[in-house]
Design a protein that fits this description.
5-stranded mixed sheet, about 5% helix, mainly beta, about 45% strand, about 250 residues, 2 helices, 19 strands
């Protein structure tokens, strides 16, 4: 008795780059999956669906469920909504699926589930042979906001990208919840979230002989995003980074 591969599905997540994302794929209907003599194997970023060669009736489609094995995955996945499920359909004419291009997420009850559901997939299968498919998950993007705190002077400071790709704007002084003043310098562009951010920014101040570097490499943004309250503007996210200067 042998098995032939019917589907090879690769799952990529931009936040994790080449690393294996914390995702798990399961049959949506385990009993029906077993009745069709199908097997699912997941190795790294690849999901393999195999079928017993002795079965004459080949299924024309299969239904899979994508589970998040880390709750933070909802915060970094573009288009993901906690407590809702995205549904994706892959016809035979498609080579790839984009997670954030699915229809509106449908509310679901995640209470009591060990692993929350991120998405469901209906995938068409060819009448014979193997199908290769890519599921691409993009990462959310947020503006990096540096909150500069210090006992001394916190004006005349600037955040600089040595690569020249990212520009920053000075939002002036803002009061923190504890009443302390902080100078806020925020990126003009929204930057895609990454597990290992490639960006390297420096903090400088004006000096008598040119800019003086205070911090050669500033901390990167965390994934505790918050919405920017821009009335009438498209929704944007911000990640707050706090830097204390002595």
């Amino acid at each position: 008795m042998g098995y032939s591969e019917r589907l090879r599905l690769e799952v990529q997540h931009a936040f994790f780059d080449e690393a294996v994302p914390p995702l798990e794929m399961r049959p949506s209907d385990p009993r029906g999956f077993d009745a069709a003599r199908l097997l699912l194997r997941q190795r790294g970023r690849f999901v393999h669906v195999l079928q017993d060669d002795a079965v004459e009736d080949q299924p024309s489609e299969i239904a899979l469920t994508l589970l998040a094995t880390a709750h933070d995955l909802f915060a970094v996945t573009k288009g993901a909504v906690w407590g809702a499920v995205v549904h994706l359909t892959a016809g035979l004419d498609q080579e790839a699926l984009a997670f954030d291009e699915a229809g509106p997420a449908q509310p679901t009850d995640t209470a009591g589930r060990f692993l929350p559901v991120l998405a469901t997939l209906d995938i068409a299968l060819p009448s014979e042979g193997r199908r290769d498919l890519l599921l691409r998950c993009d990462a959310v993007a947020a503006h990096w906001a540096y909150h500069l705190i210090g006992a001394g002077q916190i004006d005349a400071l600037e955040v600089v990208d040595s690569a020249g790709a990212v520009a920053f704007e000075d939002l002036g002084e803002q009061d923190l919840p504890n009443g302390q003043a902080a100078r806020v310098i925020r990126s003009i562009q929204a930057l895609a979230a990454r597990a290992r951010p490639p960006e390297r920014f420096a903090l400088q101040k004006a000096g008598p002989f040119g800019p003086e570097t205070l911090v050669p490499v500033l901390p990167a943004a965390a994934i505790d995003f918050k919405p920017i309250p821009d009335t009438g503007a498209p929704p944007r996210l911000q990640s707050d980074i706090f830097v204390t200067l002595w």
